[in-house]
Amino acid sequence: MTLVGFVLMSYVFFFFFFLSVGRCQLQTGFYASSCPNAESIVKSEVSKATQQDSRLPASLIRLHFHDCFVQGCDASVLLDDTSSFTGEKTAGPNNNSLRGFEVIDTIKASLESSCKGVVSCADILAIAARDSSVITGGPSWDVRLGRRDSTTASLSGANSQIPSPAFTVNQLISAFTAKGLSAEDMFTLSGAHTIGQAKCSSFSGRLFNNSGSGQPDPSIRPGFLKSLQSACPQGGDATALQPLDVATATTFDNQYYSNLLLGRGLLNSDQVLSTTVGTARNFVKAYSSDQSKFFSNFAGSMINMGNISPLTTPNGIIRSNCRVPS
Ligand code: HEM
Ligand SMILES: *[C@@H]1O[C@H](CO)[C@@H](O)[C@H](O)[C@H]1NC(C)=O
Ligand SMILES: *[C@@H]1O[C@H](CO)[C@@H](O)[C@H](O)[C@H]1NC(C)=O
């Protein structure tokens, strides 16, 4: 080989080498030598906390989602307000709604005492989301790790980039494609609503005067409508809670999709997946009759969501307190 040929080949090699490093920033087993018990510590804290509060797994999965959709999966959602910025906690979709922050604090404290300054808050959210799926009966997956934490948050991002429950299917798809996720990821990740609860204010617009029509949303099955109207009467307590999955509220299964086919979706953004003619409806049908297909796709889509714009070395920091940007 000529010298020129060799030099050229080396360039090509290094080009593809760095390209691949750039693409696969996160990896499984990232803490294998730096904090070998990291994942088992998270798991045992999630399990302890769930014994006190059966809603917690749902809240933790949602925290990871609301983190990843704003500035990427960088734990920005966990930051309290500082003198230089207002955090994301009081954004419309989050205020008086996101929960689980104290449990993340407990997990972080436990990790700091075992492996000081090693495990990021963003990775804690990703691991806790996986453990929350498993503990409620859902799928498991190997969590890609190596995210680092932001030093800033974005209140305006949280207000504009987290999808609204009033959205149409096309608006929901746009919110996901804006984050590099697919329509299929959206159909699949919506299945997280197989667990957890929503406040009356998140769906009461459907119950009496849907989009100013003077009528309830006709896609709500009559018996279900009655029970929602009595749980969330006009002028009643807007913070009262209803299960997102009326059939199996605390079990991670495919019942969410069967509910949709029966007009028993709680949020508008849930129900439109089966009432709007198109691909979404085909996924709802497929998942309602094939739980293992839903589970394996859910695992894959959670990995995709966890890959949204992570901060990796040399960017970001490892916070010592998940609420504070230092
Ligand atoms: C597709 C667009 C989505 C919309 C419009 C949406 C909207 C909502 C709303 C309005 C609530 C109830 C909040 C409240 O009333 O306090 C909620 C709860 C929840 N969401 Fe979503 N969500 C979406 C996607 C997702 C995704 C992708 C995940 C996770 C992968 C997720 C997981 C959850 C969970 C688990 C809860 C219950 C939380 C708890 O009980 O604390 N959602 N969502
Ligand atoms: C958040 O909720 C509290 C009530 O708990 C309210 O006082 C505050 O105004 C809300 N913040 C925003 C920005 O809506
Ligand atoms: C329904 O809402 C529309 C617009 O928001 C309003 O004009 C109308 O009076 C309401 N109808 C009833 C029956 O409350």
Automatic annotation (TrEMBL):
Ca(2+) 2 binds at T194, D245, T248, D253. The active site is at H66 (proton acceptor). CDD domains: secretory_peroxidase. One of its GO terms (molecular function) is metal ion binding. Its cofactor is heme b; Ca(2+). It is found in: Secreted. Ca(2+) 1 binds at D67, V70, G72, D74, S76, E88. GO terms for cellular component: extracellular region; plant-type cell wall. It catalyses: 2 a phenolic donor + H2O2 = 2 a phenolic radical donor + 2 H2O. The record marks R62 as: Transition state stabilizer. Keywords: Calcium, Disulfide bond, Glycoprotein, Heme, Hydrogen peroxide, Iron, Metal-binding, Oxidoreductase, Peroxidase, Secreted, Signal. Residues 25-326 form the Plant heme peroxidase family profile domain. PANTHER family: PEROXIDASE 59, PEROXIDASE 72-RELATED. Belongs to the peroxidase family. Ascorbate peroxidase subfamily. Belongs to the peroxidase family. Classical plant (class III) peroxidase subfamily. Removal of H(2)O(2), oxidation of toxic reductants, biosynthesis and degradation of lignin, suberization, auxin catabolism, response to environmental stresses such as wounding, pathogen attack and oxidative stress. These functions might be dependent on each isozyme/isoform in each plant tissue. This is Peroxidase. It comes from Selaginella moellendorffii (Spikemoss). The lineage of its organism: Eukaryota, Viridiplantae, Streptophyta, Embryophyta, Tracheophyta.
